[in-house]
Design goal:
This protein has 607 residues and is α+β, with helices and mostly antiparallel strands. The chain is built from 18 helices and 22 strands. The strands form five sheets. It has an eight-stranded mixed β-sheet, with helices on both faces. Strand 7 (185-187) and strand 8 form a beta hairpin. The longest helix has 23 residues, at 140-162. It is globular and about 95 Å long. The mean pLDDT is 94. Bound molecules: aspartic acid. Aspartic acid is lined by residues 201, 203, 494-496, 540-542.
């Protein structure tokens, strides 16, 4: 029995036709001597009905013993559903198939969790969903996510092809370049004691492709980072990675705005407006306390340094005397914050090294706060005016070095918005997308622990031309030609215009980043060499593809848009990896384990 239609296809126009549907038993109900079987495939479902008067005894018995999620093929005649039994929730809900024959293609065992009821399914614990991922992926929401992902991947390819990009694959077995995140190493059997590394991104290869004259490269590239798993990261993930020659920053902005316009149209049928706003790193930190601001709500950071420079309140004036700043936010309407919420915010402040968190609750016309008594009338007037203080507001302060003060309030700002959102007091429309370019990042960041500068983005990022003279004298002030694309407070991607002159690149490695010349040669020598033979000016960007799809699907978790993701501990619960390996495999790789016996899982083969 070959299927004639998919399970969401039949309409009143098909009435009278004999059809065959194939799929999974979504549900089976025995009602008044009839058996109703809803058969479901990727597209949807259709009701079929088995009447003992119309099918053989054998077929009827087969239908009555069907278990949920068994695979069947059903042949029968399409008819109108009886008066009053239409199901308006499904597109095929006006008709049903009166079964003539039923083939049981595969009986299913009782499932570890139901997939037919979205309510129940959404409450299933994620570990169980990951262990039986193939069942989880049968759920309509998950199958929608996979489809949307596929559609967006295709739209991306088509768009970039139209723009003259070549899709080029780059190696997964790469060389270890331990400058960024920790890498996954792959031992070489043929070269004892030597290793490949899985790429953290195709960065070096795409730049070399520019030297190779490709001019416009892209790839939906798999990247690997062996990092301790933060909430929503994966050890392997996908980037829309691209690189272009003979361009400047504006070309990248135009290209990515065009691409995202196409993607949003394809995925959500939504017209997003371009060009996107641009904000400097400095301004983003100053106003939002974060380099990926969510601009969908207010509570912006306000600077009060000048107002408190001469204050008798030493916590503020002292911080300023130390070269710091005083900043505050007005969490509008949150004066009723609970003790617990204030404690959570205080913990955030402390995690950045602050001693505590100063705040004012504006309730019943009064400023409730242990610190208000130290403020002069002028200081109070400045606060009222700059923060537009009103009844019911909660004012939160940070007095610290600029970056710290910004980061503390940036974190607290997001927390306050979250609290108000959960309480229904702050509404952000789900179809609102605030795109933003964050630009003019500092090229370098100082690492106090290691007492050295490191690249804010990566060491191939070009400095802003007019800042180059400051490289040796005031590295802190050098801006990088780096840009991040942000939407609703999430970093969607980032990139930069690159250094294309080998001498400048060498200076950055050796003199600014202080990597010893032998190490530069060993790690990046091939790149410096390539750049000697005519490297065009170039730049590029990479977008986090998983993250973008999660945003389009409206899910907070990237695991919901990856077919087979790993848990936060980096394990694959379905295939049960990672695992131990046979001693012979290790011998072939010239590897001897030094893992304490007690740390090896009991299933490990004896060595
Ligand atoms: N390779 C960079 C990254 O993964 C992106 C870029 O600079 O193009 O962040």
């Amino acid at each position: 029995m070959k299927r004639t239609h998919h399970c969401s296809e039949l309409r009143p126009a098909h009435i009278g036709q004999t059809v065959t549907l194939a799929g999974w038993v979504h549900s089976r109900r025995d009602l008044g001597g009839l058996i109703f079987v809803d058969v479901r495939d990727r597209e949807g479902r259709t009701q079929s009905v088995f009447d003992p008067a119309l099918v053989t005894k054998e077929v009827f018995e087969r239908a009555s013993s069907l278990r949920s999620e068994s695979v069947v093929a059903i042949t029968g005649k399409v008819r109108h559903r009886p008066e009053g039994t239409n199901n308006s929730k499904i597109p095929s809900g006006e008709v049903e198939v009166v079964a003539q024959d039923l083939e049981l293609l595969n009986q299913a065992e009782v499932l570890p969790f139901p997939v037919d009821d979205p309510e129940v399914a959404s409450k299933v614990n994620e570990e169980l969903r990951l262990q039986y991922r193939y069942l989880d992926l049968r759920r309509p929401e998950m199958s929608r996510n996979l489809r949307l992902r596929s559609k967006v991947a295709t739209a991306t390819r088509v768009f970039l092809d139209e723009q003259g990009f070549l899709e080029v694959e780059t190696p997964l077995l790469f060389k270890s370049t331990p400058e960024g995140a920790r890498e996954f190493l792959v031992p070489s059997r043929i070269h004892p004691g030597q290793f490949y590394a899985l790429p953290q991104s195709p960065q070096q290869f795409k730049q070399i492709l520019m030297v190779a004259g490709v001019e416009r490269y892209f790839q939906l590239a798999r990247c690997f980072r062996d990092e301790d798993q933060r909430a929503d990261r994966q050890l392997e993930f996908t980037q829309v990675d691209l690189e272009m020659s003979f361009i400047d920053r504006q070309d990248i902005y135009d290209l990515i705005e065009g691409l995202l316009k196409r993607v949003w149209k394809t995925a959500l049928n939504m017209d997003i407006s371009t060009p996107f706003k641009r904000i400097s790193y400095q301004e983003a930190m100053d106003r939002f306390g974060i380099d990926k601001p969510d601009t969908r709500f207010g509570f912006e950071l306000v600077d009060l340094t000048e107002d408190f420079r001469a204050s008798t309140f030493k916590v503020f004036s002292g911080a300023i005397a130390n070269g710091g700043v005083v900043k505050a936010i007005n969490a509008k309407g949150l004066a009723d914050a609970t003790q617990g919420q204030i404690e959570t915010m205080t913990e955030y402040a402390k995690s950045f090294g602050a001693k505590g968190l100063a705040f004012i609750k504006v309730e019943k016309g009064e400023w409730k706060s242990p610190i208000v008594k130290f403020f002069s009338e002028t200081e109070k007037a400045a606060l009222t005016q700059k923060l537009a203080i009103q009844e019911g507001d909660l004012i939160l302060f940070a007095a610290d070095q600029w970056l710290n003060a910004c980061e503390i309030l940036g974190r607290i700002r997001l927390y306050c918005a979250e609290v108000l959102k959960t309480q229904g007091r702050l509404t952000i429309e789900s179809n609102r997308f605030d795109f933003l370019w964050v630009v003019d990042f500092p090229l370098l960041t100082f690492d106090k622990e290691q007492n050295r500068w490191y690249s804010s983005h990566h060491p191939f990022t070009a400095p802003v031309a007019e800042d180059v003279p400051l490289l040796q004298t005031e590295p802190r002030k050098v801006r990088g030609q780096h840009y991040d694309i942000v939407v609703n407070g999430t970093e969607l991607g980032g990139g930069s215009i690159r250094i294309h002159q080998p001498a400048v690149q060498k200076t950055i490695f050796e003199q600014v980043l202080q990597i010893p010349p032998e190490m530069v040669q060993a790690r990046f020598g091939y790149m410096l060499e390539a750049f000697k033979y005519g490297a065009p000016p170039h730049g590029g960007i990479a977008l986090g593809f998983d993250r973008m799809i999660a945003i389009l699907c409206g899910t907070p978790s990237i695991r919901d848009v990856i077919a087979f993701p790993k848990t936060a501990k980096g394990t694959d619960l379905m295939t049960d990896s990672p695992t131990t390996v046979e001693p012979k495999q290790l011998r072939d790789l010239h590897i001897q384990l030094k893992v304490p016996q007690k740390e090896i899982p009991p299933t490990a083969p004896a060595s």
